[in-house]
Design a protein that fits this description.
11 strands, 13% strand
């Protein structure tokens, strides 16, 4: 049985019916990781002993007639900034290279409670600061669709693992596109839910006002099921809203007939790779054929100010959050002749180049003078962006726009043209600034085998309606296949 080709819901159904066991499914996926991950480097830590223990517990529940949970026996991986009880959690940084938490993040706990089996941790940009997954202390991850390209970031390991068939579900964190952009680059489906939809407790923060946990899957039905497991209030996270969630799986198949969907205009389409423009055109036609009304929308404030606003807010927040890693209480320690020298050595040696750069910029932004002239105005612009979207969604149900202006980058571009990397967040960061739900949806592949995609956005806590839109488009476009990593990255020559 080729378990790696099954969806999460197909695996769970088979486990519940006794068609196969959770242990068999786990063994097959672990074998696939061991056989092929050496080519792409998506998994940094495997937790086989605890995984087999969890799988046996699921099998025992089935044999004893107990409910094994909606995700019974489904193997999953999580980004290496999720706290995992007894399993190394490094944020792919020297600063936390030997840290083992003694508790699970709420998202991890809820997955386990639903019967899913945690296999280990995935590669990422150090402390989630990047968009290529090339800054990890474990080395870069490669794109399973084309080994000459990056998988995106910072959740590149999670997206690459799902695309390669190492797991049907992986979790990532999204601060400015870190779930959706790598999902787009690797040809899978990724979602950033509304801010406050899922608990952030146990996630090592980058920027708390922007961060959100997001699922990565190969189809929207699996995504809806995972969101149903993860969403809900948590007393450990006061930013996680306490409201009655709908059944995401039921609403995902509700259809979009009669819905009004906006298509973003007013940006420089000539600066985008042409297959991505064509992907938007295809998605629009799929929506029309499903009975939706299409209108155009412009967001001038967002398009002009989003990138600058995002980096002001994110880097200021990051400087504050990462101040706790001082070589004394947390993280890598290096001796010095004085307390100040110890701090300097510990942080210089513990953090990589990109993280140090972002901390320094963020510290500058929060300094008196710069704070009043840059950070405070950025927070005001952020509210203006949120208001612009709130006004838009008074008249439409959803928005279709790009997720990235480019197809997957070739390796090394982050060093050659870092400004292009930052500008690549122009479309993805806006959902974080406004706290909106957003889905990166695969629309097919180019002749060279590179993924094409669109971004779908909805109003705050309109996650269910957004899943319905994604499901309707996926019904026309088809769900993406697993990358053929056995044949040079699956990219046709």
């Amino acid at each position: 049985m080729e378990f790696h080709k099954l969806s999460a819901l197909e695996i769970a159904e088979g486990v519940k019916k006794g068609s196969w066991t959770a242990s068999e499914v786990l063994s097959a996926h672990l074998d696939r990781i061991k056989k092929f991950d050496g080519q792409i480097n998506s998994v940094v830590t495997l937790s086989e002993e605890s995984a087999y223990s969890d799988a046996r517990e699921t099998d025992n529940a089935v044999s004893e007639g107990r409910d094994p949970g909606p995700l019974a026996g489904v193997p999953f991986l999580v980004k290496d900034n999720f706290c995992t009880d007894g399993i190394r959690t490094t944020c792919c940084s020297k600063m936390l290279s030997d840290w083992i938490p003694d508790y699970d993040a709420t998202a991890v706990k809820r997955m386990k409670d639903a019967g899913a089996v945690l296999m280990g941790k995935t590669n990422m940009d150090e402390f989630a600061m990047g968009s290529t997954t090339e800054s990890s202390i474990f080395g870069p991850t490669l794109n399973p669709r084309d080994f000459n390209r990056v998988p995106g970031g910072s959740s590149g390991g999670s997206a690459a693992a799902v695309a390669a068939g190492f797991c049907p579900i992986a979790l990532g964190s999204d601060t400015g596109g870190s779930v959706r952009q790598p999902s787009a680059f690797c040809g899978v489906q990724g979602m950033k839910p509304s801010y406050g939809q899922i608990s952030r407790y146990g996630i090592v923060a980058y920027a708390s006002s922007l961060d959100q946990v997001g699922p990565i899957t190969r189809n929207i039905a699996d995504m809806a099921a995972v969101l149903g497991v993860l969403a809900g209030p948590d007393p450990n996270d006061t930013t996680c809203d306490a409201y009655e969630r709908p059944s995401f799986s039921e609403t995902a198949s509700a259809g979009i007939k009669g819905k009004k969907i906006a298509v973003l205009t007013g940006y420089d389409a000539e600066s985008m790779d042409s297959p991505l423009i064509e992907a938007i055109e295809k998605a629009v036609e799929y929506c029309r054929s499903a009975g939706a009304e299409i209108v155009e929308a412009k967001l001038p404030i967002t398009m002009k100010h989003a990138v600058a606003c995002y980096y002001m807010v994110a880097l200021g927040d990051a400087s504050s959050k990462l101040a706790c890693f001082d070589g004394m209480r947390y993280g890598h320690h290096s001796d010095g002749r004085s307390l100040v020298e110890m701090y300097k050595r510990s942080r210089n040696q513990g953090f990589g180049k990109e993280v140090r750069k972002r901390i320094l910029i963020g510290t500058c932004i929060l300094t008196r003078g710069y704070y009043e002239n840059y950070y405070v105005p950025a927070t005001k612009v952020r509210q203006m962006i949120a208001d612009e979207y709130a006004e838009l969604f008074k008249g439409v149900d959803s928005l279709i726009c790009p997720i990235s202006p480019a197809l997957p980058y070739k390796k090394g571009l982050v060093e050659e043209d870092p400004v292009r990397m930052y500008l690549g967040d122009a479309f993805s960061s806006i959902a974080n600034l406004a706290g909106l739900p957003s889905i990166s949806l695969n629309i097919g592949f180019t002749e060279e085998g590179l993924p094409t995609n669109v971004q779908l956005m909805g109003p705050r806590f309109g996650d269910a309606g957004l899943l319905a839109l994604a499901h309707a488009i996926e019904n026309k476009a088809g769900s993406p296949p697993i990358a053929d990593i056995e044949k040079k990255g699956g990219c046709r020559e």
